[in-house]
Amino acid sequence: MSRGFIKEGDQEEIPRVPMRAYLPEGVPNYVTKEGLEALKEELKDLEAERVKAGDNYIMVNFIDASIKLLVDRINNAVEVDLTKAVKDTVSFGAWVRYNGCVVRIVGVDEADVNKGLISFISPIAKSLIGKKAGDVIELKGSERIAVEAVSFEPMELTQIINDKPAKTLIPTERRPRRIVEEQPKPTVQAQPMAEDKTIDSLVKADGLLRFEPEENPIEFLPIVNERGNIVGRAMYVELHNGNKMLHPVAHLHVMNGKGATTRRYWWHVAFGDTPEKTLKRKMAETLGLSGVNPKLKRQYIRETKTEKELVYVFTVVSEEDLPFTPEGKEYNEVFERD
User: Fold this and answer.
1) What does pTM read for this prediction?
2) Fewer CB atoms inside 10 Å of the end CB: C or N, the chain?
3) Which of the four pLDDT bands, split at 50, 70 and 90, describes residue 201?
4) Which helix (H) or strand (E) holds 95?
5) Do residues 229 and 316 share a domain?
């Protein structure tokens, strides 16, 4: 982050500049013609804002740092000539209709999944590239992607998250939190799951319920520094492929009245949320615990071969009959340092 031109003795801290969209090292910054024009327009806007900032050195430094990141991205841009594309084959810049919805494969700075624009480095784009109309991509289980049409002329795009078509568009790209059925123990009375706004992503059963952590590969999550300040964002899949970009998670230890831990859960902190806000929402949605205030115990950095997390450890006292958690070494290792 830029901290240039700060005067010695000044007490105000220069605002932190969010990172540009993630692009793996060594991967060309491919852009469409429209994408490159949008970057240049963004640069003009920033330059105009810099003039308006006048002698406000805090804003000037913030804008200068933003301009530097943007100029680097523009200078490294590789505009793809779509006139040379093989018209019946999915490649960068193509509009693709599959499973009844339409997306376009674009550069990382152009991508906006809410508008049907997906990055060429995204898992779904990688699956589609090279395919033709009529091809079927077999996924896990019975799920599949059926490519219906390929075009390099504009087609009406479809949102691929936050709406109903999204769920049929990329069935294996969204893996919502789920509760898995567990056979009841003879001495424990099974409790039905309360109705809530996430009930469509839960499996209700007459037996006991078991919690499993959610995995949503295309969800954007915050990137933070060691102090927990947000410095950018990246998709779930980008944060769990060895890039070691620090992102926040919340661990929850549920304790009984005697101080013994009875359950342990964890969730990724949502972009724009504080750890406590995400935790309280997840407690209400997943566990049916509302109106209780978890206590922050500690925070630390947890690093594995595939990811790097800023862990916030919370505790809460509850005698409720909550969903069981997964068993086994892999799940327990998550909480080793709590």
Assistant:
1) 0.47
2) N
3) very low
4) strand 95-98
5) yes
